Amino acid sequence: MQITTWFIAREDEAKAIASIVTTEEHDPEEWPNIELPLIEMELMALFATLRGSEDLTVPSSQGEPFVFDEDSGLLVIRVSDALIQALAQVAPGKQASLVEAWAGHMDSDYAPEELLEQLEDLAAFARDAVQRRSPVLSLSTF
């Protein structure tokens, strides 16, 4: 099962974030973070929805992984700045219509209320990252 956590953190902290899983040298609470029950395909569907696009091939990350360990099932990569900016701009009054479009882009068992809660949480997290002028790093275990 894939578990993904986003962190508001600098790129040079990627190895420290990886150590949360590998050596437990660091604790997730050292950085603002949000745990996502969503998999990459669901994030790509959300990104397409926020762009007003039908193209579900644009990944939620950008650049090369900072840490990739197939044996440990670990990946640390930067979340797309465009996705974070789009999430930060989600207005509270538009969330319900976005959830409907998002659900239409994916095959998921999530109820609309669950997707709405996820979108609200992600938008608030993204606004925090933008306000801090910090990138968002994604730690995924698989």
Brief rundown of the structure:
This protein has 142 residues and is an alpha+beta fold. The chain is built from five helices and five strands, in the order E-H-E-H-E-E-H-H-H-E.
For the biggest sheet, the summary is: 5 strands, antiparallel
The largest beta-sheet arranges its strands as 2-1-5-4-3
The N- to C-terminal Cα distance equals 6 Å
**Gyration radius, rounded:** 15 Å
Helices, strands, pairings?
Layout: E1 3-8, H1 14-22, E2 33-36, H2 40-51, E3 61-69, E4 74-79, H3 81-88, H4 95-104, H5 112-132, E5 136-141
Antiparallel strand pairs: 1-2, 1-5, 3-4, 4-5
Keywords:
alpha+beta, 42% helix, five-stranded antiparallel beta sheet, 142 residues, single chain
Model description:
With 142 residues, this protein is of the alpha+beta class. The chain is built from 5 helices and 5 strands, in the order βαβαββαααβ. It has helices spanning 14-22, 40-51, 81-88, 95-104, 112-132; strands spanning 3-8, 33-36, 61-69, 74-79, 136-141. Strands 2-1-5-4-3 form a 5-stranded antiparallel beta sheet, with helices on both faces. Helix 2 (40-51) packs across helix 4, helix 3 packs across helix 5 (112-132) and helix 4 (95-104) packs across helix 5. 32% of the residues are buried.
